[in-house]
Amino acid sequence: MRFVVAAAAVGAAVLAGCAPVQSGPASTGADEQTGQLRVWLFDEVNRGPKEAVVQEAVTEFQQAHEGVTVDVQYIQVQTRAERFKAAFSDPQSAPDVAEFGNTDLAGYVAGGGFAEFDLSTWDEAGDLLPAVLDTAKVDGKVYGVPWYVGVRALYYRTDVFQELGLRPPTTLDAIATTARAIRAAKPDLLGISAGGKYTYGAMPFVWANGGDIARKDGGKYVSAIDSAESKAGIGQYTELIADDICPPAQCAGNGGDASVEAFRAGKAAMVIGGDFNRKSVDASTAAGKYAVVPVPGKTEGTIAPAFAGGNLLGVLKGSQRQTLAREFTRLLGGKTYQRKMFDAMGNLPTFGDVQAEVARANPVLEPFIETLEAGTRFVPVTPDWAKVDAQAVLPNLLQKIAAGGEDVDTAAEAAADEMNAAFGS
Q1: DSSP characters over 377-418
Q2: How far is the C-alpha of 31 from the C-alpha of 368, rounded, in Å?
């Protein structure tokens, strides 16, 4: 999810984990065609534009379905685990349609919460980007419609770079070199706003070095965070959290939102931020003084893999209005309303043609589109990921190095042990 708030919310919603849920109720087989359709969507810091688009979809749907009303509730991202756990156990309190983070999908499916979503009769589904649609699948089966996708790229202050005669980094190594030069010339400025809790800012470094979070071994996942390649990426990222770039006292406790906020406040020359952060940056002191490039890979001309964040819309298994729920999901999650959500919130569409359309009209999206096209990565698709996420294994790994001074080998080995315990490996 995007861990927003975008979720990210995307932005944020985007990426806190949740505890495993209990098994959900079996479908009653009922498929009522009238009555109230209940919908849960994530709340946002600035909910107004989102709410206006959703209300437009609700009005259209109600006008097309006599005897049907749609009740939309906006729930807090931070409390979603408890809300969904209760909903899966009690259909009377459950929605028919819900927005949820793609990193939560495997756990929710294992808990019996969401129904499979048949895309075969939906003409628009053929234009869903395959890599994005994969984030809606468990064991090859689709359980929702990707509502938006979020990826991160490198924001930088054009005025600072011009003044110091610098160019944007073209390799991962160059990020630290450039950031160090900026802080040396401007001690009141963070060379780059990094964060000891910013997992999805760090993972491109791991993936670009050939590392990974985990790998499949037979029927189980096994941690790969302690591989030589992963440790090289971790070391490269945590090098940024240092007194001569981003002092641990300021940066070690920061996640993605706090990292971006430092850039918005004019306190940092660079930050890894999402497409979902763009509107907020445009409303900050950095407005008109920044540009964005993809996070570079190990060699010039390459792009580091980004985490494919985002949220889905799905139908709950226990819904007694399955047909209506699917129709509403196709409407709100379809091309027309994804375009409207982009205009309202900056959410990047998940349909290839709609994405191309908004990119042509908004050249500032180019680095994010390039990042998507270069290839994205995802968390292990297993309900056990919820345990890893809830235990904050990856943020703790980064913090042990950035704030605690622990060496990469020791911290990575401990993190791998925790992961494997969660995976049952």
Answers
A1: E----STTHHHHHHTTHHHHHHHHHHTT---HHHHHHHHHHH
A2: 41
- Specify the residue for token string 């029927």: 219
DSSP one-letter code for 14: G
Nearest to 209 by CA among 239, 224, 231, 194: 231
Integer Cα distance of 417 and 65 in angstroms: 53
**In the chain, what percentage of residues exceed pLDDT 90?**
84
Q: Which residues contact 283 (CB under 8 A, 6 or more apart)?
A: none
pLDDT of 25 > 80? The answer is: no
Q: What is the mean pLDDT of residues 172-195?
A: 98
DSSP assignment of 111-154, as one string?
TT-B-----TT-GGGGGB-HHHHGGGEETTEE-SEEEEEE-EEE
DSSP state of 351: B
Run of H or E residues at 215: strand 214-217
Please state the φ and ψ torsions of residue 197, each to the nearest 5 degrees. -115, 10
The pLDDT value recorded for residue 51 is 97
- Looking at residue 95, the DSSP 8-state letter turns out to be -
State the pLDDT confidence band at 189, using cuts at 50, 70 and 90: very high
> Residue 281 and residue 323: Cα distance in Å, rounded?
41
Angstrom distance (rounded) from CA 261 to CA 240: 17
What is the distance, to the nearest Å, from the Cα of residue 122 to the centroid of all Cα atoms in its chain?
Answer: 26
Distance between CA atoms of 268 and 191, rounded to whole angstroms?
A: 6
Question: Quick one: pLDDT at residue 425?
Answer: 62
Specify the 3-state DSSP secondary structure of 4.
coil
